[in-house]
Write a structure and sequence with these properties.
Helix content is about 55%, strand content about 5%. The chain is built from 19 helices and three strands. It is elongated and about 85 Å long. The structure holds iron/sulfur cluster (2 copies).
């Protein structure tokens, strides 16, 4: 038996974890900076960097109502990137890019170290429960399209992660935070708990993965039936007896390929039997992301920063009505921005909230205690004032 090259398998593993780590760290820094920043020009919110938001806003775009509130072109660009990845290498977004998947992977590794074993949901329950994510996808897609807003937001664990430093975590994002805790605690015992049973993005990718160019193929003539591929698979896919891995649950992480001790027994292949190394397939997926996001950034179409209130007002206006949407006013909005976006004279705002003119450019969250008002007070005041 020709042995697989240990060093190259190790390299492939490292490269995947490095890509996962960069995406998780990068997005966490940006979305946390968004929470702590203020005014227009601060870094983008979690919604701008979420491909699922692209799906949620798609219907609104198709019927000519513009972007749903909280979404932007960057959400749709990321959705397109995620689907291109699925057409190239199945659910490789889940295995190589998704930061929520990475968090579960980290907790999974911690669980393995602490408990020295993995648990498995009984097969009869597991089989049925895996369909739950398709139900979540269908329910939230239809609900979002009907309500014309991001109805999933309060229940989304990734949105909760982005609001860990926010004062709204235990109110607006409480359900999402609980789902996040369940997903991470569940991953201590069961690999990729949320991905397997609940993630609507994973369900969407599973549907697209059927049309993928690359796939994992087992060569039965060289396979020694050691079962290491099955043991390495965090999605519990049956690799050891398949000729081609066709399961919609496969997240193209290549862990099975990297675990295989026989050279050429388990490989990533294109239809013409052209083989790719695990490292090359990971590199292709990462390159797709860099090319799509980089190209859109160079073209000026990717929102790395938050638009000012006036720009957000224009966007929400195109999504359904021309009135100023007071919910755009947050703790990090400034009174000056409100004056600019609504046309209300700055003097009227300073008089209404007892704020000196010199404090107009500071975020509401910074001055609210000193002058005794909250963002809710500002929103309520605006509701009344704008009706006059
Ligand atoms: S299933 Fe969902 S959470 Fe899991 S990796 Fe895929 S997109 Fe991320
Ligand atoms: S079958 Fe292989 S590539 Fe697919 S999820 Fe399992 S270990 Fe990863």
């Amino acid at each position: 038996m020709a042995k697989a090259d240990k060093a190259s398998r190790q390299r492939a593993r490292w490269v995947r974890w490095i890509v996962l780590g960069i995406v998780l760290a990068g997005t966490t820094v940006i979305v946390t900076a968004h929470q702590t920043g203020s005014g227009s020009g601060r870094l983008a919110s979690v919604d701008f960097l979420c491909p699922f938001g692209g799906l949620e806003t798609l219907y609104s775009l198709l019927i000519g109502d513009g972007f749903l509130k909280h979404t932007a072109a960057s959400s749709v660009i990321l959705l397109a990137g995620m689907l291109v990845m699925a057409l190239i290498y199945r659910r490789s977004f889940c295995g190589t890019i998704c930061p929520l998947g990475t968090l579960q992977g980290i907790f999974g590794a911690a669980g393995r170290k602490l408990l020295r074993r993995r648990f498995a949901v009984p097969l009869s329950v597991d089989r049925v429960a895996r369909y739950l994510k398709y139900v979540v996808l269908a329910v939230f897609a239809v609900w979002t399209w009907q309500a014309a807003e991001l109805v999933l937001r309060p229940y989304d664990p990734w949105v909760a992660w982005a609001h860990l430093t926010s004062g709204d975590l235990l109110t607006t994002y409480l359900v999402g935070f609980i789902v996040l805790l369940v997903a991470l605690a569940g991953s201590l015992l069961y690999d990729r708990f949320f991905c397997k049973y609940l993630c609507p993005a994973g369900a969407l990718l599973a549907l697209f993965s059927r049309f993928s160019v690359l796939g994992i193929r087992r060569d039965a003539s060289t396979c020694i039936d050691c079962g290491r591929c099955d043991k390495a698979c965090m999605m519990n896919v049956n690799v050891a007896t398949s000729h081609v891995v066709t399961s919609a649950e496969c997240i193209s992480c290549n862990e099975c390929v990297n675990a295989c001790p026989v050279k050429g027994a388990l490989t990533v292949q294109a239809p013409a039997r052209k083989r790719f190394s695990a490292l090359a397939s990971t590199a292709v997926v990462a390159a797709v992301l860099v090319a799509i996001v980089g190209g859109a950034t160079l073209a000026g179409d990717f929102q790395w920063r938050q638009p000012g209130l006036a720009e957000a007002k224009a966007q929400s206006g195109s999504a359904g009505g021309s009135a100023f949407d007071t919910s755009l006013v947050k703790g990090n909005t400034t009174l000056q921005e409100i004056a600019d976006a609504t046309g209300i004279p700055a003097e009227e705002l300073t008089a209404a909230f007892g704020v000196p003119a010199g404090e107009l450019g500071k975020p509401i969250s910074e001055i609210k205690d000193a002058y005794g008002f909250t963002p809710e007070d500002v929103r309520a005041w605006l509701e009344t004032r704008l009706q006059q």
